Amino acid sequence: MKLLVIDQDRDLVEMLASWLKTVGYEVYRAYTAERAKHEWMEHRPDLVIMDTALRDADMLAVCRDLRMKHDALVLVVTEGHDIQDEVRCLESGADDYIKKPFFPSQLLAHIRAVSRRARLTLERSPSSLVVVGPISLDSLHNEVTVDNKSARLTPTESKLLHLLALNANDVCTANQIVTHVWGYDGDGDACLIKAHIRHLRQKIEPDPSNPHYILTVPGVGYTLIRRSTDTTVEQEEPVRSLHALSS
Question: What does the alpha-carbon distance between residue 164 and residue 170 come to, in Å, rounded to a whole number?
Fold first, then answer.
């Protein structure tokens, strides 16, 4: 698996690169945004470990642009301690987030979790298409179409929407989401899940602030409603059942 490590701290990059090579990864380095662009397109990494605090560019914006050309998984590594910093990174498309300082075992666990997701994405068959009402998800190419309007998804968004679509009208709990999307058991990270749900809503909802498809079930999880354009009755029935679940 190919990794690209981007950080202006050269000593940290060299240390991480050397250590990651010892555990079997092919590692490339970048200390500036310009070098990161070159390495990203030259080596087409599977996963990018990136600090957003580079002096010469807005790395989240650079990341979004580069993913349009080569869609790598992105693990943000930062010294930010503000919860809003984490939310901002995840809403900008990062697949995972880890704060400095961290133990090598922590970083390795995050890398392995997102790499499992990458392998699952590559192993999906070309017919991996799920249709829920007006929503059509192509999880092989990470693309969703709603009412003939298409949008690109990150691998994490695609896997999350795939889970919700397969369980349309049923509630997916936080633990189920974490297990399916990130590949490990344990309590769901509410902030992490919420950020990706919000990003999905921005791509599929007519009005993301008043969701029509992806609904929150307070204290339980999330559900994707199978909407029909035929009758109001068909649309309201699942919502009533959700109110019962959340009460």
Answer: 8
